[in-house]
Amino acid sequence: MVPLDILIIGAGPTGLTLALELAAQPCPPTFRIIESTSIRSGNSRAFVLQPRTLELLARHGITGRFIERGRFNDAIRFYSKRAFVHELNFGEAGMARNTQFPNSLMISQADTERVLEEALNGYGVVVERGVKAEKVEQDEDGSGVTAVLKIAGRESGEEREEARCKYVVGCDGAHSVVRKTAGLKFEGGVYPQDFVLADVKMKWEQKSCLSFFFGNGLLGVFPLGNGIFRLIVSRAKERGKEDQPTLKDFQDVVNEMVPGETEIYDPLWITRFRLHHRIVDCYRKGRCFVAGDAAHIHSPAGGQGMNAGMQDAINLAWKLASVLRSQSADALLDTYDVERREVGLKLLNGTDRVFEMLASSNPVWLYVRNTLISWVVPWVMSNKTAIQNRSRFISQMGIRYRESPIVGQVSTWKGALRGGDRAPDGELKGPEGQRWILGVCRGVGFHLLLFSGMADAAVSDGRLEEMGSDFRKDGNESVKFHKILSTPAADNNGNVDEEGKVHELYGFKEPGYVLVRPDGHISFLGLLNTMDELKIWVKK
């Protein structure tokens, strides 16, 4: 049996993103992606793509497909005891700066999965549905993995298959088989509150605003497009009450908490659920990895979970591909846990705090919250610095890996950016018109940005061409380099930073360089006269 390079278990947003990243590699590894369910669910709890996720998906040229199916948020509104309290306009607040995607995109998980799967199919890769992983075993000598798969047959009922692979990635959710059979701990707990959810049509004027209503509990109203709204209600758990809620139950809550007369009708999905908050003790064990809900589950506060999972996949994919091509040592794969588990912990802690503040069922806290909210919310929302810091968390633009062993900067670097930071986006003028840096850095490889510097310090287009070509000849043929000029070149080649804003974003008055990783984070940076340090760095 010829082993696969990678078996991906689970075809939700995380597994599909991982498969897409692998399929897009110049020399893609051999892999399969399996999913236990026979058809994609039309229901979904996740319904937000954050700006950072949209940026990373733009590397595949598919963000337009998501935008066609979704709706950008304009604002968030707060109400208490049926009275309007405050509105925060996302555009005015500058929720996410220096990006093509300043706001979150409301889109159903089903549509997110549909777009990802269509893009994956474009590479000739098909999700194997109705295939369930029953057991995953690593060889005692660490040479490979065997997965026992149960396949739903059309006539013979069920059959089993053994799949051999070099690596397994569990994207199989909160009840992950990979996590359990690998012996990984899933530490955390269950929130005490009871939650009910409904996707309904609603006679409601705020069709592009998120709305939160405080009173005897919490009601969140989220526009999903096409006249459909998601209602999420949190209240203290009622002992012995486990029956499914009805449309009337939701109408009663709306009547109690929403000002005016608001009718809900035509329910698409109604359910009751409990929420967990957990994180795995390690994202890797030998040749087994976990990602997405298999590695971390959060409260829905801020719409972080699905986005974190998709970014887990993007972080892991290029590392697996590099190791399988023998371009990197196995130790590179350890940095997946180093980088992403810290992110998972921060998201877990951050969403916990917000969630407890919003959804606590403690009667004393409810009284204090409902009494003070009309003063506290406007005061908090008037602090633009605090709002921008918070929005960096929610948008996931603030994620960075500065402590990772595979990022850095030259020893003499004094700029604000550091290795491991998100590579800032910005507008440039190219031969074909306006473009963004992340549009220049398309694809799933490394990119070297060469900055000419500003004013009298600037070097010529020819000098940057020479430096880029020299770097590639030094064993870095797979790295694409891009010239960012402060003035147009004689042949109109290169990307021009006419107002110097991109140079300023990166901290370059003098000529400089930035090596950008496949996942859009900075690998290494410095001034152009320190290129020799970069050449040494990439050989480590």
From TrEMBL:
Keywords: FAD, Flavoprotein, Oxidoreductase. SUPFAM superfamilies: FAD/NAD(P)-binding domain, Thioredoxin-like. This is FAD-binding domain-containing protein. One of its GO terms (molecular function) is oxidoreductase activity, acting on paired donors, with incorporation or reduction of molecular oxygen, NAD(P)H as one donor, and incorporation of one atom of oxygen. Residues 5-348 form the FAD-binding domain. It comes from the Eukaryota. Transmembrane segments: none annotated. Belongs to the PheA/TfdB FAD monooxygenase family. InterPro entries: FAD-bd (IPR002938), FAD/NAD-bd_sf (IPR036188), RIFMO-like (IPR050641), Thioredoxin-like_sf (IPR036249). Its cofactor is FAD. The keyword Amino-acid biosynthesis does not apply. The keyword Flavoprotein applies. It comes from Hyaloscypha bicolor E.
